[in-house]
């Protein structure tokens, strides 16, 4: 049984930073790749980034590349998203997801204002 639980969202001023955390349980090798999505009000779901099993390889969407950093601590079964230089357009609910898209967390809200 895979479970993903995000935390760390909140209200931040433009230019600020937040660290989002995703606590994962029940993962096996088949779910080694993890990623983050977001959805802003009235907009489509947007893929942000993904990271491979050992954490040495990651990929980013152009909208967040250079500002967001994905990382993972496999010993703690935890995924992170460091968000820097936040903009008002980054306001959204942020979700962690398994690489196959089958499992999603409940989301954590980030509001930049």
Architecture blueprint of SSEs:
Blueprint: E1 3-7, E2 10-12, E3 18-25, E4 34-39, E5 46-51, E6 58-60, E7 68-73, E8 78-83, E9 92-98, E10 108-112
Parallel strand pairs: 2-10
Antiparallel strand pairs: 1-3, 3-8, 4-5, 4-9, 5-6, 7-8, 9-10
Lateral strand order in the biggest sheet: 2-10-9-4-5-6
Helix count equals: 0
Our measurement of the CA-to-CA distance between the termini, rounded to an integer number of angstroms, reads: 37 Å
The SSE order reads: EEEEEEEEEE
Shape: globular
Concise description?
With 113 residues, the protein is mainly β. Helix content is 0%, strand content 49%. The strands form 2 sheets. Strands 2-10-9-4-5-6 form a 6-stranded mixed sheet, with no helix packed on it.
Account of the protein in words:
With 113 residues, the protein is mostly beta strands. Helix content is 0%, strand content 49%. A six-stranded mixed sheet has the order 2-10-9-4-5-6, with no helix packed on it. It has a four-stranded antiparallel sheet with strand order 1-3-8-7, with no helix packed on it. A hairpin with a 6-residue loop joins strand 5 and strand 6. The protein is globular, with a radius of gyration of 13 Å. The N and C termini lie far apart (37 Å).
């Amino acid at each position: 049984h895979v479970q993903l639980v995000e935390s760390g969202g909140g209200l931040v001023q433009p230019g600020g930073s937040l660290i989002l955390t995703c606590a994962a349980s029940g993962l096996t090798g088949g779910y080694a790749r993890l990623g983050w999505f977001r959805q802003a009000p009235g907009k489509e779901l947007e893929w942000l980034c993904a990271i491979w099993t050992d954490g040495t390889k990651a990929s980013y969407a152009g909208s967040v590349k250079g500002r967001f950093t994905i990382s993972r601590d496999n010993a703690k079964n935890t995924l992170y998203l460091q968000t820097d230089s936040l903009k008002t357009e980054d306001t959204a609910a942020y979700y962690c997801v398994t690489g196959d898209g089958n499992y999603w967390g409940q989301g954590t809200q980030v509001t930049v204002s």
